[in-house]
Amino acid sequence: MEYKESILKEFARLAVINGVNVQKGQPLVIDAPVDAYAFVKECVKVAYEQGASLVYVNYTDEDITRLNYEYAPTEVLARVPSWQQDRYQDWIDQGVCMLHIVSSDPDLLNGIDPEKIKTVRMARMKAMHKYQYYTMNNIGQWSIVAWPNLKWAKKVFPDKDDEEAVQALWDAILFTSRVEEGKTMDNWDVHNKQLRVHSKLLNDYAFKELYFRNSLGTDLRVGLIKDHIWEGGSSFNAKGAEFHPNIPTEEVFTMPDRRRINGTVYASKPLSYGGNLIKDFSFTFKDGVVVDYDAKEGKEVLKGLLDTDEGSKSLGEAALISYDSPISKSGILFYDTLFDENASCHLALGACYPENVKGGLEMSQEDLYELGGNDSLNHVDFMFGTEDLEVTGITWDGKEVPVFAKGNFVF
To answer: Is residue 307 classed as helix, strand or coil in its secondary structure?
Structure first.
């Protein structure tokens, strides 16, 4: 893969300064694949230049992950040793920020027993629930960026040879992440302003519910929690430090009322979950709970997702993205939620983000749940936006306001 050293440094600056925005004296934790070593090294250097007290790096290798699932017993894989949990607790106590560098193989666990995958994932999610709370409540800054690998590249660009495919994926990551030598930070400033325009207009309307319809068959009403907040682009941690959770991002998102979701939604893109692809799937909701579902491929994997806990059968996020977003217009199906969710309106099964309701970051999980927020070990986005999606906002006094027409914002 060819890249200019200056572009690699530009991407690292985006990830560390705009992404996690490491503060002086703050530790940084980086999770990364082993083949992203050159990028990780640049990120570590930038972090120290910004005043990080210490940078911890955790390397992973998906080939070894696959071998572990093939050969290790389920009960061994599902065990999270106490030293690992203690390490995460120590990081929480230190007030770290976290940078996740993802480089996934969409078919990583294809052929592995879905029940084994489900058992292992549930055990690990339960063991790491405190850390999920730390990030989802924006106690510390966090961000996700991507790095290409051959298997992922060949999935996205099957007609290209190996080198061309990886280069094409690298170019796509940089383009959608708005990385441009000498202009990246300015690009993000302009982008944030546009996302805030949409968020403000939606917050001013303070809708009671959204009504979604399209030609795939989606006919879904999603109630919104009272005093909900639309967010987009950057977020703020508990101490007021600004950061960008997702790079790239095109969404504005808010909190559904888990009790007021009714109708059917059809996915418009495949979902990569647990190392498997789920294709052509749908959900039917009644009073906020999935009462029926189907998938042409990966139905057992989908069942495992829904069965994780009660909260996995309801929604924790509703996000709006114009069909004419840069990722959608690229025509690339990334087979990775970080990118595909930003090409399409999406919903998330599972936990809500407390920042999406007034005072939510100061609420207990019980108080948030009482208001209608969702609680779960999961937070799994799936895409349902199309070029003919119509979205209508319903106000608390019954007024209907067009929000989307032909897949795009009308304001």
So the answer is: coil
